[in-house]
Amino acid sequence: MKHALAFILAALLSAGTAHAASSAEILERSTPADWRQIAPENTLYLELPAGRVVMELAPDFAPRHVANIRTLAREHYFDGLAVLRAQDNYVVQWGDPASEDPAQRRAVGSAQARLPAEFDRAWPKALLFTRLPDGDVYAPRVGHVNGFPVAGDPRLGRLWLAHCYGMVGAGRDVAPDSGGGTELYVVTGHAPRHLDRNVTLVGRVLQGMDLLSSLPRGHGPLGFYDDAAQRLPIRAVRLAADVPAAERSALETLRTDTATWKAYVDARRHRREDWFVQPTGHIELCNVPLPVRAATTTP
Amino acid sequence: MKHALAFILAALLSAGTAHAASSAEILERSTPADWRQIAPENTLYLELPAGRVVMELAPDFAPRHVANIRTLAREHYFDGLAVLRAQDNYVVQWGDPASEDPAQRRAVGSAQARLPAEFDRAWPKALLFTRLPDGDVYAPRVGHVNGFPVAGDPRLGRLWLAHCYGMVGAGRDVAPDSGGGTELYVVTGHAPRHLDRNVTLVGRVLQGMDLLSSLPRGHGPLGFYDDAAQRLPIRAVRLAADVPAAERSALETLRTDTATWKAYVDARRHRREDWFVQPTGHIELCNVPLPVRAATTTP
């Protein structure tokens, strides 16, 4: 039913018989039911000198990593550590500057230093997957699950988070199971989709992305800062659930399982704004902006 | 013949019967003939307080815009103007802060203030197009021409530059012919391919990209700096041909019409480095890094 409505709406708009709604107009007309509040238990704050980066964790895709990151945050593992790496058109990464030194590195407390990889997951029918029918260079299927960009292979019955701009992952060494969440990175450039299913993604940035993307690039190998003075200190990493309500950044994100979502994607695909003279009629997974706004009601 | 060689090489590597060459190894083994020096007449320097951004202009795709930008540079149009806009995951743009004020704006001298759009071009067989066979969400064909990422439609017989990271374009207003090169932008985020064929691309950044991509983001509409003090002054924009040889940044780029290029792309597609456990076997147009290095010989 939702699909039929979206189809009729799209047909009307394409025929030019109705006002051609832009994506901004579709968001304006959305109702509270079109939005999903981010659970405090899944919200991670990276507190930097210049402000707060807000991330949503994805326990549906990386349950063990998310649980481990919650433990690390609760035990203040990250507080006082630093942003170590800013590689242009790729990633910003933070963690323990002394991670290679057994005598100096920070203890992980009751968390795990390493975890089995969570590169992909089974694809049960119960998951609210909204397909993006425009195709993809890397995977047989792409779409969205609860506001996360995902790719999948129905033949294998596997689904995974996709490395789009703003996605957050757990850095690892050569061994696939050498990550765990003590080093986290954020994608700050063109989607490095070759990393999909090679490293565990754990969530995405919802707010404050520019605090990471505009950092000076590191000039050591892989964009690591070769001078320790260039590292950006981390004041704290906290789970929103552990922060007093008055200090939280309450956010909500557009649901991706609604007719509003389909109309929004369609507006981005066909770009009916006056400025566009040759809309492509297609849209690629990582070029769909995922709307986020301040929560309109408190939970 | 080149294709057959590349195929045999790929087959050998896939079968694991030969050492699996990484893209770095392929570049190390390249010969001088695999590289193309950038012509000084097509090299534009954006001189910022923190250093130089080097761009290659694309007269094959935007001949009138490129000629106009050469004139603007030669008549010092840009000197003393400013970076006006830095929109996260999108573009950085520079031009005349007073462009909207007829009494204050800078005169374009013998250049043109506006030019007919050069959104795409005819696709003659003489052009050295190397197809990327991995497919594309936006266009029936993609590949490379002289080191530039391009998309095309054989049915229409049209070819155009693609909005990948680092591409340089001529900003315009709502009218398609309202650009001309007085305002230039650089893509600093995930490829905004919906802009393809909607705005004239004129070249790409070869060096110094991080001087633009790491700028503080503007917080006005569209990422314009809402406070004039945030604008970054431009010391000068000069054509390399007008700069004394000793002050030039002589660069060369990997040719995209060689067996080396095909082997390089194949290595990026199959990622045979130890770190990768599930290479995708695909590569997307804007995820192919275009190698640039200091020129090994002087012209």
Question: What can you see in these coordinates?
Answer:
The structure is a homodimer of 299-residue chains. Chain A has 299 residues and is α+β, with helices and mostly antiparallel strands. Chain A contains 5 helices and 17 strands. Chain A has a 9-stranded antiparallel β-sheet. The first copy, chain A, has a 5-stranded antiparallel β-sheet with strand order 6-10-9-8-7, with no helix packed on it. A 3-stranded antiparallel β-sheet of chain A has the order 1-16-17, with no helix packed on it. In chain A, a hairpin with a 2-residue loop joins strand 8 and strand 9.
Keywords for this entry:
nine-stranded antiparallel sheet, 299 residues, 17 strands, five-stranded antiparallel sheet, homodimer, alpha+beta
CA-based shape of chain A: globular
Measured as a percent range, the helix fraction of chain A is 10-25%
How far apart are the first and last residues' alpha carbons of chain A, in Å? 29 Å
Number of helical segments of chain A?
A: 5
The profile of the biggest β sheet of chain A is: 9 strands, antiparallel
Rg of chain A computed from alpha carbons, rounded to a whole number of angstroms? 20 Å
Runs of chain A in which pLDDT lies below 50 for 5 or more consecutive residues are: 1-18
Strand content of chain A: 25-35%
**SS class of chain A:** alpha+beta
Oligomer: homodimer
What string gives the helices and strands of chain A in order?
A: HHEEEHEEEEEEEEEEHEEEHE
Mean pLDDT of chain A: 93
Find the count of extended strands of chain A (DSSP E, 2+ residues).
17
Largest interface: A-B, 44 and 44 residues
Strand order of the biggest β-sheet of chain A? 14-4-5-12-11-13-3-2-15
